[in-house]
Amino acid sequence: MKKLARDPQIVWRNEKRREEEILAALERGEDVGDRGSVILIVGGTMHQLNLVGGYIWNLCDGSRSLDDVVETLASEFDVHDEVLRHDVEAFVNDLVGRGWLRYA
């Protein structure tokens, strides 16, 4: 099965402090969908990925397939498998379409 890999030309970093703040807000029941925890710099433009997007981005290191990413996230989040698969596929397809991820 093909593995997902990030474009090596993209500069990125995890914002660990920001991620901890988001997780604390999530535990308080706050909506955190628009809060970024991973910063990407693509073509001179900065982009933020939300918490789940950041998890997916980190997992796409060239060693995991889409199935592996879904399986890993399923162990961390309480969400129906079909919904999770649909959401992860949509996100990955968007990033593949942008050229930020590729199947290796």
Output the keywords.
Arc Repressor Mutant, subunit A, globular, three-stranded antiparallel beta sheet, 6 strands, 104 residues, alpha+beta
In terms of topology, how is this protein built?
Blueprint (H helix, E strand, L loop, with lengths): L3 E3 L4 E4 L1 H12 L8 E7 L2 E6 H9 L1 E4 L1 H11 L4 H18 L2 E3 L1
Antiparallel strand pairs: 1-5, 1-6, 2-3, 3-4
Helix pairs in contact: 3-4
Any overview of this molecule?
With 104 residues, the protein is of the alpha+beta class. The chain has one domain (4-98): Arc Repressor Mutant, subunit A (Orthogonal Bundle), CATH 1.10.10. Helix content is 48%, strand content 26%. It has four helices and six strands; from the N terminus they run E-E-H-E-E-H-E-H-H-E. The strands form two sheets. It has a three-stranded antiparallel sheet. A three-stranded antiparallel sheet has the order 2-3-4. Strand 3 and strand 4 (45-50) form a beta hairpin. The longest helix has 18 residues, at 81-98. The protein is globular and about 40 Å long. The termini are close together.
Q: What would you say about this model in short?
A:
With 104 residues, the protein is an alpha+beta fold. The protein contains 4 helices and 6 strands.
The percent range for helix content is 40-55%
Q: Whole-number radius of gyration?
A: 14 Å
Mean pLDDT value: 95
Helix count, DSSP H or I runs of 4 or more residues: 4
Number of domains: 1
Which strands sit side by side, in order, in the main sheet?
5-1-6
Strand content: 25-35%
CATH architect. name: Orthogonal Bundle
What CATH first level would be assigned? Mainly Alpha
Number of strands: 6
Shape: globular
What fold name goes in the CATH topology slot? Arc Repressor Mutant, subunit A
Our measurement of the CA-to-CA distance between the termini, rounded to an integer number of angstroms, reads 9 Å
